[in-house]
Amino acid sequence: MLTIGEFSKLCKVSSKTLRYYDSIDLIKPAWINKENEYRYYSIDQLEKIYLINKLKEYQFPLIEILNILNKNDDNYLKACIIEKQEYIRKQIERQNDILKQMQKDINIIESRNKFINICEDIKINIINTEPISILSIRRFIKEGEEGELFNELIPLIEGFKLHVYDKPISIYHNKEYVENSLVDMEMGVPVEETDNKYIRTLEGSLCIYTKYVGSYQRAQFVYNTLYKWKEEQNYEVIAPSYQKYIKGASDTDNPDEYITEIYIPVRKKYKIKNL
């Protein structure tokens, strides 16, 4: 048997943390001396604490580690690690995108252009859109998971044998941005059919419209420009804006070549006459 201090040294986990693990049933001492409350661990428990350490290194929260240990199933453990691996891979891709954008901003500063790009190159129009039928799924998702939501549409399209005639559309229903919260997202595709519980009508309206080329990170600056123009032209927003993905990740590996259309449903503000 090993004292808690000896066990702590071998597994490189503090005695305080081991006591906490005991309190949440993550790993308990093999024996506790009732006379002095000294805790003892067995050599066999080193394998378990090493697994706990490894899963913590893989960024698993303790509640998930406890669940994995309780399952005691190698196939389940493997599936959990694969899922976490994919999550971390996506995080790395996102961080790489941020690094690329930071370098672009550095280049802008060095060329003495505006740090916050106002997108002076885009053309803004007012158009009237027609009502369209869209097959759509609406759900609260994490930012950046739009592609996964779109993938859920594919079996519906194939299962119902629907005829898609235009590019995918995403609609953000959030009324405001809340940090670290889920996004109320609707992803859809225009279809010819109308008789289906997953199909709804996207109403036509007067819209501020533009088309821009570049990564999705540029969208924020494009929206800034559109809303500035909206105020200057005395329009008000009447429905959630939406985006149409003309050219995206399935068409090119270069985000700078993405092509996206933005539609903002609006109407003219009423002017109050002086009495």
From TrEMBL:
<dbReference type="InterPro" id="IPR011256">
    <property type="entry name" value="Reg_factor_effector_dom_sf"/>
</dbReference>
<dbReference type="InterPro" id="IPR029442">
    <property type="entry name" value="GyrI-like"/>
</dbReference>
<dbReference type="InterPro" id="IPR047057">
    <property type="entry name" value="MerR_fam"/>
</dbReference>
<keyword id="KW-0238">DNA-binding</keyword>
<dbReference type="GO" id="GO:0003700">
    <property type="term" value="F:DNA-binding transcription factor activity"/>
</dbReference>
<dbReference type="Pfam" id="PF13411">
    <property type="entry name" value="MerR_1"/>
</dbReference>
<dbReference type="Pfam" id="PF06445">
    <property type="entry name" value="GyrI-like"/>
</dbReference>
<dbReference type="InterPro" id="IPR009061">
    <property type="entry name" value="DNA-bd_dom_put_sf"/>
</dbReference>
<protein>
    <submittedName>
        <fullName>MerR family transcriptional regulator</fullName>
    </submittedName>
</protein>
<feature type="domain" description="HTH merR-type">
    <location>
        <begin position="1"/>
        <end position="71"/>
    </location>
</feature>
<dbReference type="InterPro" id="IPR000551">
    <property type="entry name" value="MerR-type_HTH_dom"/>
</dbReference>
<dbReference type="InterPro" id="IPR010499">
    <property type="entry name" value="AraC_E-bd"/>
</dbReference>
<dbReference type="GO" id="GO:0003677">
    <property type="term" value="F:DNA binding"/>
</dbReference>
